[in-house]
Design goal:
5-stranded mixed beta sheet, single chain, two-stranded antiparallel ribbon, globular, 7 strands
């Protein structure tokens, strides 16, 4: 792993602290002063990991406090960071206004919906919709309401990612997907309508009980319904674990969420994770947040993090975070890491079987079958995976041969 990449990662981590220590400030100033790493590279890394707003705010604060007074190119660095931040902030404000509009539309049509991630998370965890990067809006609905919602979204100028009208039955739509994205390409907006979570990981939505206890967040002065704090935190921990924490922002989310929720019901959250066979997945996020951001955790929770002995996994995550292309590793290799985070042999086995056999987007793209023939997808899935794996391996081998 290149030393510069590791140094750049630690620079970004220091800039993402909720409270800067003297060591954090010294690290930031030293990296900028020595110029081992071009500041453009630091900003690209921050943007790649979804934490550019946090990095900008820290740099602006240090600049205003004249901590960067003798650092070369400070003005240029701040100007460039500010430009990137303003672009993100403008997009976030547009998406937040659109979320309010869509939630009002659903309410007027007596459709129950919960916003999560995106503006809801930014407001809840960061206290500011501009401090977290997000590229789309995520809304949880009841499966029975989807067809009505699809019509409403299309009336408002959105186009569904999937050709809904061509489906001959509900199974092709609902059993093979967690969600359906809708796009307003004229305004550059994307909305993901969810009816389930983590279908491929044997983590059913009912394990979260999202509709049993909800809360309200204020976004742009408007009330928006979202998941309960316990469900929201657990969801983000499992989402990060699903992707093997390849983006720093997912770890920062855990830290900021916990700091913003001092009355979190830890017993309830851990209980839900245990019932889903995902306690280790949950604690992987807490361990990373504590390691990188000194997240305040109850003694009992911190002790559990330590007894799970997640150090090898955390070392792997740091390697990924420091990589120039953290999403580049083979999906099967990452699957092995996710399986390793499941609690029991039963849950590990179910995760593997779900991944291998449950049909998904690739199978639906190949052919759309009626409900009566839906069972054929379960056979197409492993065949298609074997084909795609073989093709990818051949392409990599050809690419290696070309470079050689």
């Amino acid at each position: 792993m290149p030393n510069n990449q590791t140094e750049a990662l630690h620079f970004v981590i220091a800039c993402c602290q909720s409270e800067l220590s003297d060591e954090d400030i010294a690290l930031v100033c030293n990296v900028l002063r020595t110029q081992h790493i071009p500041y453009e590279t630091l900003l690209v890394l921050a943007h790649q990991h979804g934490v550019l707003p946090l990095v900008y705010k820290t740099l602006k604060k240090l600049h205003d406090e004249k901590r960067l007074h003798h650092v070369p190119f400070t003005e240029r660095l701040i100007t460039e960071a500010q430009h990137l931040y303003r672009t993100i902030a403008q997009k976030n404000m547009l998406m937040s206004a659109e979320l309010i509009r869509i939630m009002k539309l659903f309410q007027e049509n007596h459709i129950e919906a919960l916003a999560f991630k995106g503006p809801a998370l930014a407001q809840k965890a960061y206290g500011d919709i501009t401090l977290r990067q997000y590229g789309d809006l995520d809304i949880l609905i009841h499966r029975k309401d989807f067809r009505h919602i699809a019509l409403l979204m299309q009336e408002k100028g959105y186009t569904p990612h999937y050709p809904i009208e061509t489906f001959t039955g509900d199974k092709v739509m609902f059993e093979m997907n967690n969600d359906c994205p809708f796009y307003d390409r004229n305004r550059g907006l994307a909305v993901e309508i969810h009816w389930d979570f983590f279908r491929k990981l044997a983590l059913p939505t009912k394990g979260f009980a999202p509709w049993g206890n909800t809360e309200t967040v204020m976004i742009n002065g408007k009330e928006v319904q979202t998941l309960s704090p316990e469900t929201h935190l657990l969801y983000h921990a499992l989402h990060g674990a699903k992707h093997v924490w390849e983006r720093l922002v997912w770890i920062a989310d855990i830290d900021r969420f916990i700091r913003s929720t001092p009355d979190l019901d830890w017993e309830k959250t851990i209980g839900m994770a245990k019932n889903m066979g995902a306690e280790k997945m949950f604690f992987s996020g807490l361990s990373l947040a504590y390691n990188y951001f000194h997240t305040p955790l109850p003694d009992t929770v911190l002790h559990r993090c330590q007894t799970l002995k997640l150090e090898p996994f955390m070392a792997y995550v740091e390697l990924e975070l420091s990589s120039e292309n953290p999403a580049s590793e083979d999906s099967l290799a990452k699957l092995s890491k996710v399986i390793g985070l499941r609690d029991t042999l039963y849950h590990k086995t179910m995760t593997l079987l779900e991944f291998m056999f449950r049909p998904g987007i690739n199978e639906r793209r190949s052919i759309i079958l009626p409900d009566s023939l839906f069972w054929l997808y379960w056979f197409l899935r492993p065949v298609g995976m074997a084909y795609r794996f073989t093709v990818c391996r051949m392409m990599r081998l050809c690419g290696s041969g070309t470079k050689a």
